[in-house]
Amino acid sequence: MTVRQRITKNFEIECLSPVHVGSGDKLTAAEYIFDEKARQVYFVDQARWIQFLYRKKLTDEFSRYIEQTAGLLGRKGPFRGQLLWEWLTQKGIRPDEIRNLAGTIGHVHTNNPLIDRRSVNDIARNVTDAFGSVYVPGSSIKGAFRTGILSDIVFKHKGTYSDQWRCVERIIFNARTRKDTDQLGPIRDKLEKMVFHRLDLRDEHGKSCQGAVNDVLRGLIVSDATCVEPVRNTVIVQKLDGSLAKSESMNPCRLPLFRECIPAGTRLRFSVTADLSMLKEIGIESIDEVFSATRKYIERNLKFQELAFTRVFGKQFFAVQSFNEAKYADLFLGGGTRLPI
After folding, report:
1. How many domains does the structure of the chain reveal?
2. More confident of the two residues 83 and 7
3. CA 42 – CA 27 distance, rounded (Å)
4. Is residue 86 part of a domain?
5. What does the pLDDT average to over 109-115?
6. Could you tell me if 142 and 85 lie in one domain?
7. CA-CA distances (angstroms) from residue 236 to 39, 80, 231, 257?
8. pTM listed for this prediction
9. Quick count: other Cβ atoms within 10 Å of Cβ 160?
10. % pLDDT > 90, the chain
11. CA separation for the pair 271, 166 (Å, rounded)
């Protein structure tokens, strides 16, 4: 490998819709403050919160509140206990004092009439950097590239991968439960090995290496995407589940889970480095071709998604404008965007 075979390009992208990249943290109704009137969620600064409780002599009372609330959160149905905003107000804390406890603020999506004081339950947090600003990890972007490239190669060579593709179609259009869709994982893994494991590397004894060491996408390195301007305030949207199964209801299932998202319109910057000596093994000779493959994947799956959403929400689908905007997208990023192929 020579230096000339590695190229790097810088990119700036704009979020066309809210983007959720989960941090793994999920907060219950007792771990954030929901301001119903302002339609805002305040994620408390932990150091400020502890100092506040100590200064107001509320530490013991808050411990009792947590114990009581934990029991109520374990029950089925909407949360029936006292929200943290109510508890603080009852203790004589002024609204401006409560708002000052926020480290970051999430604006609850107001277009959903079903969001009320009892329906904002668990909130899945977005990843943030050391300064509290949201970002998109490079691994998420590379995952989007990986899916786009895989899809492009499979569609270009349908005959080679016809058996796997028929299995994918059968599962997608007949799946009724999460267990059914879990069957896609092994099929995708097999496809990825067939498509990407082509380097045929050998160890010091001349024996063929096995596994990911032979993956040609080792030659694609993507940096984290950081905001052009730091973004600490986010949006909170509800997770919906729909189905393509013919026996399913047209109504989507509104889950008691909300996601913290990077707001639409946010601009982020990242870089892509490509080792073309590796990528040429799958016919890619430039970074532009990586984006081209991903765009083709987006075009195919937008048609699929529009069909699915129209079936779930009816012919007067409320997000037609959003789909028109999405046609200009370069990447699908974040939770809930990845399709099997």
Report:
1. 2
2. 7
3. 12
4. yes
5. 55
6. no
7. 10, 21, 14, 10
8. 0.84
9. 13
10. 45
11. 36
- Please spell the DSSP secondary structure of 276-307, one letter per residue: HHHHGGGT--SHHHHHHHHHHHHHHHHHHHHH
Sequence-ordered list of residues with C-beta below 8 angstroms from that of 305, at least 6 positions apart, any chain: 323, 339
Q: What is the distance between the alpha carbons of residues 279 and 219, in angstroms, rounded to a whole number? A: 6
Residue 24: band (very low, low, confident or very high) from pLDDT cuts 50, 70, 90: very high
Q: Are residues 206 and 317 in the same domain?
A: yes
Same domain, 172 and 280: yes
Same-domain status, 14 and 76: no
Asked whether residue 281 is domain-assigned, the answer is yes
- Beta strand segments in 109-263, E: 122-126, 135-136, 220-222, 225-227, 234-241, 253-261
Question: Does position 179 have pLDDT exceeding 90, yes or no?
Answer: no
Q: State whether 263 and 148 are in the same domain.
A: yes
Tell me what pLDDT residue 119 has.
52
**Listed residues 120, 143, 162: the one ending a domain:** 120
| Judgement on whether residues 178 and 89 belong to the same structural domain of the protein | no
Mean pLDDT in residue range 101-122: 70
Contact (CB, 8 A) for 48 and 115: no
CA dihedral 293, 294, 296, 298 (to 10 degrees): 170
Residue finishing a domain among 85, 120, 155: 120
Cβ-based neighbour number of residue 187 at 10 Å: 17
**CA angle 198–203–206, rounded 5-degree value:** 95
- Measured CA distances, 247 to 173, 307, 308 (Å): 11, 16, 14
Window from 143-152, 163-172, 222-231, 309-318 with minimum mean pLDDT: 309-318
* 59 and 33 co-located in one domain: yes
Q: Please give the Cα distance from 27 to 11 (Å, whole number).
A: 33
**Mean pLDDT across 247-263:** 70
* Whether 247 and 145 share a structural domain: yes
| Sign of the torsion angle spanned by Cα atoms 147, 150, 153, 154 | negative
Among the listed ranges 33-37, 110-114, 208-212, which one has the minimum average pLDDT value?
110-114
Print the domain residue range for 311. 6-21+135-327
- Would you mind telling me the total number of residues written for the chain in this entry? 341
Q: Please give the full DSSP string across 160-189, using - where no structure is assigned.
A: TTHHHHHHHHHHHHH--SHHHHTTHHHHHH
